[in-house]
Amino acid sequence: MSLFVISGVPAAGKTTVARLLASRLENAVCVPGDSIRAMVVAGRAEMTPDADDAALRQLLLRYQGALAVATVYLRAGFHAVVEDVIIGPVFRKFLALVPVSEMHLVFLDPDGDAVAERDRARPKTAYGDDRWDVGELRAVLRQETERLGLWLDSTGLSADETVDRILADLDASLVELRR
Description:
- By secondary structure, the chain is of the alpha/beta class.
- It has a single domain, classed as 3-Layer(aba) Sandwich (Rossmann fold), CATH 3.40.50.300.
- It is built from eight helices and six strands.
- α1 (14-24) packs across α7.
- The longest helix is centred in the middle third of the chain and has 23 residues, at 53-75.
């Protein structure tokens, strides 16, 4: 069974693509980072441009929680698709938490206009005055995130087409982790 990790900035299409990918695999679960984040009902520290150490610790806990859930299902014979914003310097810390020796890693990277439009079209918004700017977060993705796995410009792709591209090029997304 395989671990898939779908990353990108908020509103890149991670959740939609991850759920659709899981639905196309035999015996698969989708582990959304937002679901793990929602488990913190008191004392949540948000990841903002000026986030403190508590926010970073909680982000790493979220990654650990998602990977722990994925591990339970992997051991039971399921594919696991984890999706979250895993970009910038924290990406290396995430990789150190991954419980398997190889995984499929996909970064969704639509252009800034597409991200802003998708964010406006959904009930929750990730970008705003006291939060990240689309350009700032895309810069973290593009300039501060190590280029591993499959990077897809999904600007003109539907979710189905994006999953088609992922499944058609599994070799490009395969990342072997040194342990």
